[in-house]
Request: fold
Amino acid sequence: MADVQVAPWTLVVPVKRTAIAKSRLAAAYPQHRPELARAFAVDTTAAALASPLVRAVLVVTDDPVVAADVTAVGARVIPDLPATGLNEALLHGAAVAAAEFPDNGVAALSADLPALRPAELTAVLAACVAPRSFVVDLPGTGTTLLAATPGASLDPRFGVGSALAHQASGAVSIELTGIESVRRDVDTAADLAHAVQLGVGPATAEVMSLVLGAATGTEGLAC
Reply:
């Protein structure tokens, strides 16, 4: 899809410190939860950078390990200077993106999309022609991507019921088939199992191999 001729995008990916991230995975993965959170962010970032419509990925985080890992795959890290919540982190990242890449659209992308496919993300971004657009997660209540075209305000409203909040704010829902990997965010063990079925990226696959190895008393098994 390298010949896609539509506007480029800068993606803003917020990542919590892994010590507190993905708390709902703790019961199923008590030893590997922080590593899974880090791996999700790395795989999400790498897949996003592989889209021909993505010119840059700005990761907003104060986690030094995540910062090093996403930098290694080509992202730029922005400290979470507001440190007051998800929407504030996204506004900070969007402001940096708009200042440095004024001709690009800006899209907020969830950091927990370990099965993300570059082609599916590209299809979504190509469809984001309204001033603000969003993608509803698979459960149907949350948001995995919120996009604003150049000059439009991102106006993020993430949190409980964010899909309805974004719709009420005037954002247009992207209704495409075949974008399951963009909608499959991971909060629970069932979500992760589904992501594994879709096919997770190498960082998540490596951690899942360790999980399986710990469960069976062996090491280095594929997930």
